[in-house]
Amino acid sequence: WPRDLSIPNYTENERSMLEIVTFLFSVSGLLVLLAWTLTGRSIGGGSLGVWRRLALCWFTVCGFIHGVIEGWFSLYYTIIPADQSFLSQLWKEYSKGDSRYVIADNFTVCMETSDCHVYGDLSVYGLLWPSC
User: Which stretches are transmembrane (predicted)?
Assistant: First the structure.
């Protein structure tokens, strides 16, 4: 929105929404399985409980979303409208609901960059040092 918004150099996505969402959920699912498997191993003679392991799976997915996906936006927000890389197409698909992401709105860029560095880093910290 708005439907008559003019975006210089904008190119339509090569991938469908279904392809983008399927890949995104597949990667997230694989990360959850990896985190679940790795946290199931004995650490220092003790094992983690189910709720702690689920929390670490959550931090893994949050680290991926905030670090990789939002990190992509904060680095490449100026070229996303014309770019056909997977993550740029993901952001163009997302921007169909909120055009601020494809027009490089200053507030949105600042907030996504802050989210990337704060939530992404904290998620990785929580994953690597679960006893804290």
Answer: 20-38, 50-69
